[in-house]
Amino acid sequence: MNSTAKNIFSYRKYWAHRFGTATQLPMNRDEMDVLGWDVCDIVLVTGDAYIDHPSFGMALIGRLLEAQGFRVGIISQPNWHSADDFKQLGQPQLFFGVTGGNMDSMVNRYTADKKIRSNDAYTAAGVAGKRPDRAVNVYSHRCREAYKTVPIIIGGIEASLRRIAHYDYWSDKVRKSVLMDSKADLLVYGNAERQIVEIAHRLGQGEKISALKGIRGTAHFVKQIPAGWAIKDSADMDVASVITLSVDPYQAEPECDKKPANVNNGEQIINFTPPKVQLQRDKTVIRLPAYEAVKEDSVLYAHASHIMHDETNPGNALALIQQHGNRQIWLNPPPIPLTTPEMDAIFGLNYSRLPHPKYGTAKIPAFEMIQHSVNIMRGCFGGCSFCSITEHEGRIIQSRSEDSIIQEIEAIRDTSPNFTGHISDLGGPTANMYRLACKDSKIEAACRKPSCVYPVICENLNTDHQPLIQLYRRARKLRGIKKIFIASGLRYDLAVTSPEYVQELVTHHVGGYLKIAPEHTESEPLSKMMKPGMGSYNKFKSMFDKYSKAAGKEQYLIPYFIAAHPGTKDQDMLNLALWLKKNGFRADQVQAFLPSPMAIATSMYHSGKNSLRKVKREGGDVSIPKGIKQRRLHKAFLRYHDPKNWDLLREALKSMGKASLIGNGKHHLVPSFQPKGSFKKQRLNTNHPLKAKCFKTKHVR
Q1: pLDDT > 70: what percent of the chain?
Q2: Is 196 helix (H, G, I), strand (E, B) or coil?
Q3: Which residues form the domain of 468?
Q4: Which of 187, 325, 467, 471 could anchor a disulfide with 219, C-beta 3.0 to 4.6 Å?
């Protein structure tokens, strides 16, 4: 597997570049006619409204492909009940590209309590119900129905996080790879610029979709292991005890690949010690337990999850293969991260930065939030177990140049019709990881640590915030810029390594309130989240208060916490509630843990095993708040001040032997009385949507 990458703007342009660029990528035949197109080379299908802005995945991919010379059309939020809408641009010459949108379609539609949300931020006027559940599957089937011979390539966050067999929270079962369920030809994962450009040019040169094997950042079907490849069994890498199975995890393998096994009372026992052979990294594939095995055995699922997460560093990741019935899915290693010049070129493409004119004056909530924000980087090396940013964007930070960012701010100032001088955000998945990286590229390429900052900040990590400080100062000096806010999630344990950065942030870029996410106060849930202890929070708060006072500003920290995360017991939530009360916090909204596909914490939720380390059949158990009553209780602790929760909390405190916390004094958590007119029982159907932490950042596609 090649560890170098061709510059994505070095390809010879496709012949159709002579048609030039479009003001907006066309969404109907009339717009194609204006451009002089008889056909589209590529048609992109998305579950979002089409907004021609680089923070929206289909716009970015569409403009990138246009810059390569291809004619690209957009089918946005089609009626999926028939294939008619999928024919509106005609048959594409090269392929359909399908995505559920900027958010996973299931997270977009359902809360952590599996209740249907009342709105959709990525739809005109916020109207809900404009995309189907499991949109990638549904759209792919309709594309195939519309034009049977056109290749279908799936991507975006929904496909990315379902690239192998995965636990699905909404159906409470392990589902097949989305490549199987969608019946697509090829899956691209991550942000996917590298792979989609290579795929488009190779198809444009006449190659068949079936020939596109071995491209980093893709998953595809294989009939057999290619010649010259060695197979390394996942059990050889992560076995701490004998695993007894009623289902053979290597079923349907070719005879030459089967492993010898012992037999005990009619059940197969994997107990194989392979011969020691030297393996060539770029010609070695790891065989994961089959879909049928992980579906039936949650411990094997946790094992497969651990192995997959261990193979996410582009510098050392091996290919993976997983059996699904009589088919095999091959997962190539992650793509090589983009360089700064490549990032600059992508964000400098011909975006109108506006919704398509078809939406008229209707407001699209996601656009309203993001239109005056600037994405300065991507990726995250935090490794939080509940978050899927790393699994999607990677843990190696990819940053734009300072000049590129400044040019985008100036473009917003000069072209946005309703700009008032305020940049709403200058950030990314994490506000303060701009240009941070390992001090040694060789160490980075060899590293398999899931996080660079947990349990402590790695000594090899460069934590210099000076480039970010310089960017803030230069941006503030621009003509017509009144205020620049930092709204992206702040990694405060990194921030405290640079008091100058904290001072800069607090003095100039906080609008009265700064949201940060300790997630919990107790060591056990924090260890399963891979989040720092409250020592870092306290240190940051001290700095925040000091610099706010020095600037003569009254500003407040707003901490966010997660309820019902794996590893959390009732006592942990009680301790958190007592901390909130002691510090005078009354959470207005709370978020319950939502097991998103592929996250490490989701593996814990499903299996009850700690998949942050090697998975054992015996031991490594994790406390899982799974039942609806317990999850409701954990949320109630976060809102201990709400009378609707008092009856539930009183009952829980009594059963926990903590009745002394019920009363009307300052040291009590809940009063002993119930106000008239309040609900005696907390209703299950809460009114506000609980957003999944791992999908809430607006820069994740």
Answers
A1: 90
A2: helix
A3: 372-695
A4: 187
